[in-house]
Design a protein that fits this description.
Cofactor: Mn(2+)
Distance between the termini: 97 Å
CATH architecture: Alpha-Beta Complex
Number of domains: 1
Number of strands: 14
Family: Belongs to the glycosyltransferase 16 (GT16) protein family.
CATH class: Alpha Beta
Mean pLDDT: 84
Structural class: alpha/beta
Keywords: Disulfide bond, Glycoprotein, Glycosyltransferase, Golgi apparatus, Manganese, Membrane, Metal-binding, Signal-anchor, Transferase, Transmembrane, Transmembrane helix
Strand order of the largest sheet: 2-6-5-4-7-11-9-12-10-14
Number of helices: 22
CATH topology: Spore Coat Polysaccharide Biosynthesis Protein SpsA, Chain A
InterPro entries: GlcNAc_II (IPR007754), Nucleotide-diphossugar_trans (IPR029044)
Low-confidence stretches: 1-23, 49-82
Helix content: 40-55%
Bound molecules: 2-acetamido-2-deoxy-beta-D-glucopyranose
Strand content: 5-15%
Largest sheet: 10 strands, mixed
CATH superfamily: Spore Coat Polysaccharide Biosynthesis Protein SpsA, Chain A
EC number: 2.4.1.143
């Protein structure tokens, strides 16, 4: 049968196999030769496919690494090629301008921070300086780094109050982060101070911008949003307050308490900052990528950017409905050995997912759509309020992808809510650095995988109060209302707060 087929073929392809035919050899020998040729072709084709394998997102990948992984029979992991570390670093190394959303070349600007002598006790000077800084939107260090942002870049926004020692430690941790020079680092302040500015001006490892929340307690110590002498004291009864005719007599919170200015500022600042970063900063207009939110008393691991980029790649495939990536967690014991490259999927819970939150415009737009709910919810905690939005306003709730081994540490757990605990920033820093040092070989995981989904039942959280005052609600609304920018400019000129709260 075989030889018959061969003969037919030979006749049909006389010219092709002519040379073979002239050799007048035995058919079985020719079959063997043909078999060899086909085998060689097969192997060649396989090699070809291997050499030209392209990952789905089309980025260049490190072929020798890929081969090594395959050689190890590590097919399960190469199936996760989208989330592979080598892919990220290769994409970064390529001098490839495709996909650039924001581009400011090096040496376009040579300006550095100007030292301005601001009299810190002169609130007029501070107001003018804040207005100028927010208008100019100056980015420091462009002379060194330029700015190139793509959809897979990371913009880091730090909300800063007044704890300079923590801020210094956070910046020291950011200095050690891989690829930090490719990010834009934005500090959002609610206190203007020389001391804080000096610390930020010492950042020489990436492009930096400072923005200033303009309606602060510092600038309005004796009127809203500060403590007006005619505001009702926290614990006065409503009937008594109405008799006294103090300013906010009609608006205690749901527990019957009147507002405490220092607790209200953070929620205002949080919403203002997001609006500013996503919608108002010129440099961010074209940017579609993720924004990482940090606070002054956090400490970040050196692989945080890499890890967030890998999570984002994993999200595209394994959790399209995830709208938030969380690089940190509060677990008492952290096992980097077991969990370094593992994530968990969950629905947003403020007490678990508020540290190292990372998201893009899609979630910001959802928050904005729910701004009325955000500003009216009687709770002064922005994260608690966000969980309420997730449960009651944002469609499909906020789905989160969370690192199982934390890349963010909370140093200042003796802040607003932790009175009595002793604050030892330097001791805390040492402890965190020891954890990172001990686990150095487990940072920068090669592969990122989903390892479980949290089954915790979540409810709409009960509001904690502290946010009953109509002026807080109105001020909050003013940040995201249609005519917010015009009103804000009028306010900045006149410094008349009633423009925003009236
Ligand atoms: C690719 O990976 C191999 C093995 O990890 C490494 O030695 C080599 O330098 C990498 N090549 C590039 C271009 O990154
Ligand atoms: C990278 O691109 C810039 C401009 O697009 C070019 O001037 C520079 O020479 C390139 N660098 C390398 C290493 O190719
Ligand atoms: C944003 O995109 C526009 C249009 O492509 C471009 O002219 C502008 O320079 C970009 N902005 C930045 C900051 O790169
Ligand atoms: C900035 O400085 C660099 C090097 O000092 C110089 O080459 C460049 O022309 C300067 N750019 C501008 C806009 O002044
Ligand atoms: C505060 O600064 C403003 C603007 O620079 C100046 O006009 C004013 O005299 C200063 N006030 C005091 C008390 O120094």
């Amino acid at each position: 049968m075989q030889s018959f087929t061969y003969k037919k073929k030979k006749r049909a392809n006389q010219s092709l196999l002519g040379t073979l035919g002239e050799m007048k050899v035995h058919p079985t020998r020719l079959i063997r030769t043909l078999f060899m040729v086909i085998l060689v072709l097969f192997v060649f084709l396989n090699m070809h496919v291997l050499m030209h394998f392209e990952p789905r997102n089309g980025d260049e990948i490190n072929i020798s690494l890929l081969r090594k992984l395959r050689h190890q029979g590590n097919w399960g992991d190469t199936a996760h090629v989208q989330t592979h570390l080598s892919e990220l670093s290769d994409a970064k190394n390529a001098n490839d301008s495709s996909g650039l959303e924001v581009f400011i070349p090096i040496n376009q600007y040579n300006k550095t921070f100007l030292h301005r002598d601001i009299e810190e006790s002169n609130l007029t000077q501070i107001h003018l300086e804040i207005e100028r800084a927010n208008r100019e939107q100056f980015i420091h260090n462009l002379n060194k780094f330029g700015l190139k942002l793509k959809a897979d870049s990371l913009v880091i926004v730090v909300q800063v109050h007044d704890r300079s020692q923590y801020l210094q430690i956070l910046i020291d941790s950011l200095r050690k982060v891989n690829q930090i020079k490719d990010s834009l680092l934005i500090f959002s302040h609610d206190v203007y101070s020389d001391e804080l500015n000096k610390i930020i001006h010492s950042v020489d490892f990436c492009p930096v911008m400072q923005i200033y929340f303009p309606i602060t307690l510092q600038l309005h110590p004796k009127e809203f949003p500060g403590q007006d002498p005619n505001d009702c004291p926290r614990d006065v009864k409503k009937e008594e307050a109405l008799k006294k005719k103090c300013n906010n007599a009609a608006f205690p919170d749901k527990y019957g308490h009147y507002r405490e200015p220092k607790y209200c500022q953070t929620k205002h600042h949080w919403l203002w900052k997001l609006d500013r970063v996503f919608d108002k900063l010129e440099v961010m207009k074209n940017y579609t990528g993720h924004v990482l939110l940090l606070e002054e008393d956090y400490y970040v691991a050196p692989d945080i950017i890499t890890v967030i980029q890998m999570m984002n790649n994993l999200k595209k495939r394994d959790c399209k409905e995830c709208r938030m990536l969380t690089a940190g967690n509060y677990d008492k014991t952290q096992s980097f050995v077991v969990n370094s490259g593992k994530v968990e999927l969950a629905t947003f819970i403020s007490s678990r997912h508020n540290m190292g939150m990372t998201f893009a415009r899609d979630l910001w737009n959802e928050i904005k759509k729910c701004a009325r709910e955000f500003c009216d919810f009687d709770d002064y905690n922005w994260d608690w309020t966000l969980q309420h939005l997730s449960m009651k306003c944002i469609s499909n709730k906020v789905q989160v992808m969370k690192m199982k081994a934390t890349r963010v540490f909370h140093m200042g757990d003796c802040g607003v809510h932790h009175k009595g605990k002793k604050c030892e920033p330097l001791v805390k820093q040492k402890q965190i650095e020891k954890i990172l040092q001990d686990n150095q070989q487990h940072l920068n995981p090669n592969v990122m995988k989903v390892a479980g989904t949290s089954k915790i039942k979540i409810r709409d959280p009960k509001p904690n109060g502290g946010w009953g005052d109509i002026r807080d609600k109105r001020l909050c609304h003013s940040f995201v209302s249609a005519e917010d920018e015009r009103k804000m400019q009028r306010f900045m000129k006149s410094n008349d707060i009633s423009i925003l709260t009236g």
